[in-house]
């Protein structure tokens, strides 16, 4: 049976892309501990929030201190607790935890009109990738702090979500359904969106392993760049170049769904100011636009006009926590079914974008993350994912069809830890199979391979992904 599977997959790969045989790399024991020495010793299905296994006691205390700023809700300023005030004036959530439940992905809302937290909406311009909406800025914020009467601050509005069902069929005749969302911003408080404004949904990602991704050498990443597809494999990895908000220099982007942040520190800072309304060492002003006069007034009355709402020391603690959320060990990766799926993963060429392994920089400043053999299954590069996933929003060098390759490690634990699962940039896919079926553009060949697999092969590939 195993021989039959391998022969049929090889024949399929040649048929689909005309490629020569791709050898499946020999299995390594290091795959069982995808975060290297930082990997959690035992699987924990209660939460993703665990400190890296190799931290000493003092570092664990710093981790939990940083966690308090992730967990606890912020309040409007001025307040008695100056370390926790500064919320808003406009915001998406009161805490990081509200969007990253148990350190994973937040709870999605269904059809209807909502003020969602875990699903936020970035705003851009169809004609100018660096522009934002004149009235609403770069991110839509459905909540606002309450002000003392007679002043009143309006939230920016709500989101109306509708779904369309798309039916398809595998090569063996098995049918499948995909859910296509449609998003509309409604009850707008500050006027209409500009005619060229585009909205891009972003579903809060899981947090584990972020520090290890930050520790991958830029040289190792750029070695995978192939903008003009010189090797003619249909895949043209491209790395984003974005402005570091602290240095104002253009650097390689690696965090965010379009790789628009250069480091974990800047990604954390951007989430603080955009999602919660907390000024910080990277972003020193609230996001009120010129149309939002009451928001500007509320920002000036907050008591932090001469100081940041989260200062450097506390921001660093939060980043330290984020850098050391441990990756969980693999599950039944050595089983026959998982190993069959592993072979299918390589033969379908999934690894061309989802690069399996790296060794982190030996000179990375955070020593506990340095020189670690890790298995995140991502190249952190931008790829054209086709019209089905396009949002028409440009960010840096990323165009409206391009997304950063997300890491795959731990995706099989979503259901067990969170009690639900959702995939892709807006959570539209409720299963791993649905996520694969949404792939297009540069990933069209890999999707076609999956569609042409028989049921046993599809199950084996998905089983492998659930174990890594």
TrEMBL record:
Matching InterPro entries: Cyt_c-like_dom (IPR009056), Cyt_c-like_dom_sf (IPR036909), Cytochrome_c_Peroxidase/MauG (IPR051395), DHOR (IPR010538)
Keywords carried by this UniProt record: Heme, Iron, Lipoprotein, Metal-binding
SUPFAM superfamilies: Cytochrome c (SSF46626)
Domain spans labelled Cytochrome c: 336-468
Gene3D superfamilies, per the entry: Cytochrome c-like domain (1.10.760.10)
Example of a GO MF term: electron transfer activity
Full protein name: Lipoprotein
Organism of origin: Pseudoalteromonas piratica
